[in-house]
Amino acid sequence: MKKKLFSLFLSALLTMAVLGGCGSDGTGESSENNPSKETVESSQSGTEVVEHPQYGGSVVVGIQQDIDSLDPHKATAAGTKEILFNVFEGLVKPDKNGDLMKALASDYTVSEDGLVYTFTLREGVTFHNGSPVTANDVKYSLDRCSGLLDGTPLISSLSVLTEVNIIDDKTVQVTVAKPNTELIYSFVAAIIPAGSGEDENASPIGTGPFSFVSYTPQVGVSLKKNENYWQAGLPYLDEVNFKIINSAETALMELQGETIQVYPYLTDSQAEELKNKFQILSHPSNVVQALYLNNADPVLSDVRIRQAICYAIDKGMLNEFVAGGNGGLISSAMLPTLTTYYVDLNDTYGNSANIEKAKQLMTEAGYPDGFDLEITVPSNYEFHMQTAEVIAEQLKAAGIRAKINPVEWNTWLQDCYTDRKYQSTISGVTSDMTPGYLTNRFQSTSKKNFINYSNPEYDEVYLKAAAALDTAEKAGYYKQLQKIICDDAGSAFLQAPPLTVAVSPKLEGYVFYPVYVQDMSTIYYK
Predict the structure, then answer these.
(1) Could you give the angle at which helices 382-396 and 2-14 cross, rounded to 10 degrees?
(2) Are 375 and 318 spatial neighbours (Cβ–Cβ below 8 Å)?
(3) pTM for the whole thing?
(4) What are 129's strand-pairing partners?
(5) pLDDT value at residue 22
(6) Which residues of the chain are under the pLDDT cut of 50?
(7) In 3-state terms, what secondary structure has residue 145?
(8) 124: burial class by Cβ within 10 Å (0-12, 13-18, 19+)?
(9) Which of 5, 30, 339, 445 is the 20 to 30 Å CA partner of 215?
């Protein structure tokens, strides 16, 4: 029904002048040593059955893209990191509430001046190869991430590290060049065995709840249970297979055939189609979806053209048709869930289209008859493809002739993100739990600035935000950054879409995180 409505919607727009795997048998049955149920007496209802998590079984998770690297320090794509979350861990890691929990570090302290971090390592933690985690492994990993090892930082936020010293086998002291209250979040960086860096992409070794088994390009990744995982009782499953599914039609077919048991990133129409057979779970995501505009493009380099695009988009209607009205509308590169730092700027361009204003700006910029716009979209993401279809129709009302260019994920990653050879693209940028992660990519010198945005004022304010130690002061600077990039129409920011997931009714324990991960350690057959 949703698909039919969607098609009718697109047709209507053309006539409008203005657009306002398994355990042994795949069932996950537990062994005699791990009973799944127990019978208890209830004084009110007689005998009742109480469910307990089962141990064992296998799950297949559908994913929409191939991975870009098994090396946790070099992986760029969010879709890769959501898998590697199960294999690697840092000194700290996020929990489901958005707080940092101690992981490979059992404790840590930060000096009063914010320049020295001291980590005490957890006792008894081993890598998947059986070797114990030592201070030497931590030093090697942090040196490698920060560039202290060879001069090339692999994680930009850790480039401020000036020294990593081993105090003893279980204590590591890290010195930084300048204080930053957000830096502690960067210590989620994976700890790997000393000297293993160049081998990680072929044979990754971490400390997570699952260990690496195999990877087949364009097919998927297989993981198995880490029997010696330091968190008692986890994981429940014996095996997890992440299967690459490149089309929405294939995903629906496999879900209905029960050949995959978990599938995230559903559109609203997919969720409607599956709701009678699957658990449909939804939660705010940590993704900023936008029509990202290459500011170096000859046409899009004019701020008036970029602003015209923003005015021509009806975000409210877009959200309704693609996300079922469950997305959070945005006008800058900040997530509404980061409430301390977020400022609502949706009134700048409005949530419905203003075609008259869009045409006025285009005329002022020398394009009274409109212009051509190519929108490159990773075709494996149905959410982004549907978004592109709606936006292309909306832009027609302003005379912007949009053409959708669907490409494979690896092509998008190379052409758009790495080489910046595109005009515009619809995609999502994920965040960690800090506002700096979302805003630092728009500095003019950032390697992650794939939209080629450049504004000296933005660069100056970002440095002030990073250096501020007072929360209120820091929040003020981040709100300035949002206003600058919004007024500049650095891109047409759309929404923080919901993360909607189909989960087999046989499973329990799926947990949403404030970061882009699929934590398989908590999932079990009921």
Answers:
(1) 20
(2) no
(3) 0.80
(4) none
(5) 33
(6) 1-50
(7) helix
(8) exposed
(9) 30
